[in-house]
Amino acid sequence: MGVAVGLSGLAFGAAAATAGLTAVQASALSLLAFTGASQFALVGVVAAGGGMVAGVVGALLLGVRNTFYGLYLARVLGWHGARTPLLAQGVIDETTAMVQAQSGRRSARAAFVTTFAAIYLTWNATTVIGVLATERVGDPEGWGLDAVGPAVFLALLWPRLRAGAAERRVALLGAALALAATPFLPPGVPILIAAAAVLAAGGSRPEHVATPQAADDPAARREEEGR
Amino acid sequence: MTLWAAILATALGCYLLKLAGMTAPRRLLEAPAVRRFAVIAPVALLAALIAVQGFAEGQQLVLDVPRTAGLGAAVVALLLRAPFLVVLVAAAVTTAALRAAGVG
């Protein structure tokens, strides 16, 4: 995952430089926004000469999936109080993927924190390097590294897919919806469309959706047993 | 709007979106529909992410044979319960090998 994130960071740095951002501006985005899709969206619009407002709106639209992740993580991680605003910065694809591959609140929390820290460092370091270097660092596709990104997320999603038919249905529907929407919507938005798959599939037999935290959470376990 | 304003607006907006999800009121989180949605949402979103990363470039659907084979190798490795790193190496090596062989 570090490699995939590192390459992405380099790519972002390069894209930002090409769009005319300074190293400070690119770093500001990586430090403060810290969410790849949105950062690429803003930089892409700037590079294409589009309006700033359109860029910001596009970036925020892509950021909405982090809100969905946040709803999930709030439940699973169960942190409350002063730490939350600090930890909220870490709500992204990678930390969510790592958390949902865990079984138990303690390991989920550990996974979140370590992934957040590691990725924050990697992403920001490679952003700076990417801006300053701005020439291609080798050929990622020649090394087969473009398959590594999706492979990482697949490996993390795998335990959920094995858990039940409902999960597999939702995954297939989500993937199909996203691909179907891709030619018609700006990059990143189709992934949000996939959330609609949840609403479609979630209406039928929700009790069969396995909740991985039940073992760790007495209230949830009582509920599971009560079904 | 200047570039700096756009950068800061994006940063603030993205942070607030993350925070909103994390600090949703307890009662909202406990509602059965929200609970079901929150638990299953990552599955749909991550599956969509995998699909788009594997089979799309920008707004174009692409069937890149080496990359697809690489993902297939990852699936095989996962079915064989291989360790995490083996899964990734299998994906990378399969993809690189097919590209080197001039496929796709």
Features:
heterodimer; A: 227 residues; mainly alpha; 11 helices; B: 104 residues; two-stranded antiparallel ribbon; 2 strands; 78% helix
Number of strands of chain A: 0
Gross morphology of chain A is: globular
| Weakly predicted, low-confidence segments of chain A | 203-227
Residue share in helices of chain A?
over 70%
The ordered string of helix (H) and strand (E) elements of chain B is HHHEEHH
Give the class of chain B from helix and strand content and strand pairing.
mainly alpha
Which strand-content bin applies to the residues of chain B? under 5%
Count of helical stretches of chain A: 11
Distance between the termini of chain B: 44 Å
Structural class of the secondary structure composition of chain A?
Answer: mainly alpha
Largest sheet of chain B, in brief, is: 2 strands, antiparallel
Give the number of helices of chain B.
5
**Largest interface, per-chain counts?**
A-B, 94 and 73 residues
SSE topology:
The complex is a heterodimer of chains A (227) and B (104).
Chain A: H1 2-18, H2 23-33, H3 36-47, H4 52-77, H5 83-88, H6 93-100, H7 105-133, H8 148-163, H9 165-181, H10 189-202, H11 218-226
Helix pairs in contact in A: 1-2, 1-3, 1-7, 2-7, 3-4, 6-7, 6-8, 8-9, 9-10
Chain B: H1 3-22, H2 26-30, H3 32-55, E1 56-57, E2 60-61, H4 65-79, H5 84-100
Antiparallel strand pairs in B: 1-2
Helix pairs in contact in B: 4-5
